[in-house]
Design brief:
mainly alpha; about 80 residues
C-alpha cells in the first residue's frame, strides 16, 4: 500500500472516473469544494447569531398556547 492508499479507494476513484469522465472531474471537485465552503459559512454565521434571535421550543409552544386560548375565547 503506497502512501496508505487502500485498493477500495482506488477502485472507487476508477469507477467515478468512468461514470463522469476525466473532463468533468475537476468541475465536480470545484463545485463540491464551493458547496462545502458555503455550508461552513452558513454554520458559522448561525453559531454567531445572538441567542435572543433564535426561537426556542418553549417560546414556540407558549405562542401556540396563546393562539389556542384566543381561538377559544373568540368562539
Amino acid at each position: 500500500m503506497p502512501f496508505g492508499i487502500h485498493p477500495e479507494i482506488l477502485i472507487l476513484l476508477l469507477i467515478i472516473a468512468l461514470i463522469f469522465g476525466a473532463k468533468r472531474l475537476p468541475e465536480l471537485g470545484s463545485s463540491m469544494g464551493k458547496s462545502i465552503k458555503e455550508f461552513q459559512k452558513a454554520v458559522k454565521s448561525e453559531d454567531a447569531a445572538p441567542q435572543s434571535q433564535i426561537p426556542t421550543a418553549a417560546a414556540s409552544a407558549s405562542v401556540q398556547i396563546d393562539q389556542t386560548e384566543k381561538d377559544k375565547t373568540s368562539v
